[in-house]
Amino acid sequence: MQRLLAVSLAVAGAVMPTGPAQSTDRIGPTRLAQAADDKQSDVLDSGPAEDAPLSRDDLFGDTDPPKSDDAPMSKDDLFGTSPPSTGKSQDSRFSGMKFRGFVQQETAYTYADPTHWSRAVFRTEVGATGRINSNLKWKATIRGDVDPLYFGTDFYNDEVKRDERAYFLVGETYVDTSLKGWDLRIGRQNIVWGEMVGLFFADVVSAKDMRSFILPSFDIVRIPQWAGRAEYFIGDSHLEFIWIPYNTYDNIGRAGSEFFPVQAAPPPGFQQQFRGEVIPSQRFDNSNFGGRFSTLLDGWDMSAFYYRSTDATATFQREIVLGPTPTIFWQPRHDRIWQAGGTFSKDLGPTVLKGEVIYSDGRSFNVTRLAEPTGLVSQNTWDWVLGFDLNLPRDTRLNIQGFQRIYLGHDPDLYYDRVESGASFLLNVKLVAKWEAEWLHIQSLNRQEYLSRPRIVWKPQPNLRVAFGVDVFEGPITGFFGRYRDRDRVYVETRYDF
Question: Could you point out which of 8, 141, 221, 326 has its C-alpha 20 to 30 Å from the C-alpha of 352?
Fold first, then answer.
């Protein structure tokens, strides 16, 4: 029974596909860094990406789209340029204003028992950029999702249906300006610090929409934070400070949904209930802040950072009540943690070497010990990842990564080993005409547990793609992937960027 009670709830990040975020520090200030955000697209959505991070915290327990896949974004693309003079006065607030966005439809069928339709979402995102004057620029983004499946299905409970049938999000919405050499961005924004393909390690700031686990593209998964950011550039070096006064937390959905973090049934004789998530009060001492320094030295792109936060990802506190009906209560809560680490990358010709290392202090993890009042213990951890990105003949790309989490002062009743190891590979091959094949596989090396995602992508034009894929989960019911072992699915996804 102890083992069944030790549900693997470590959702302190999410292993998820993402898009590029590399080298914006070297290009220019905050307003140019946004170009990288605009070019982001999921590793599984538009081909492999240079900086695609996938969260490691869950694995170990605990953007706007471009006009095309190949066209780089310039500062003028991002904010627009003033049209040629016509001799007529124009309102500067609308000078060079541009709109950008996408429409998307995804349908998924879960073929693992019990079989059921699990997704039929229609999604639209629209963003606008413009300038008020030469020193004040802005961006505004909104997104709306509607899933008609959740208006009529009998497979999910009413609470899940209300949560999933419609969703509205204020995306990146901010103003950019500069003051005495500092570039300032104020508003709702994505702050990307990690530089790995397919895994989140150093990318510790953004919250995530986990209601569909890691399966959507990263620009869908990421939830921007309300933040103030100040950046200063000195030659090839870059200094950055951030403050998040009003925190945004991961959206984990409702109990009974397709990818709710707790999937294991309670032990015989017990009921299981979920209490509402405890969101910390919006006080100054609960706000998030941090800084990062990066530099380019002899071809090595290196950075170091510190981040103090109320963790965006919840840990699940447990309470066991024996009478009158034996019941296990779970309640998601958020730890106060701090993290420090660094990143590096080096271009080695046909190969790019990348690595990250992160120390985390104060995060809680579940244990099997029934005598533990909350079912949680605090464990400090080291994480590291090393990856190689190779460009091969015939338009083939291969990315290979190895990673580990080390629990310091390892509690013997943790579900996880003292050292948890894993590996991933991403293979992308151009086929005939406008077709390509892709396969992402993430594997635990401690046990038989993995996520495998083969798919075929058709791109009839640069801003239109249709994907056909399969998502396969394997592992123990208390594992990060294994908890979804009855969620194997096939899907088709269509996306048009404008």
Answer: 221
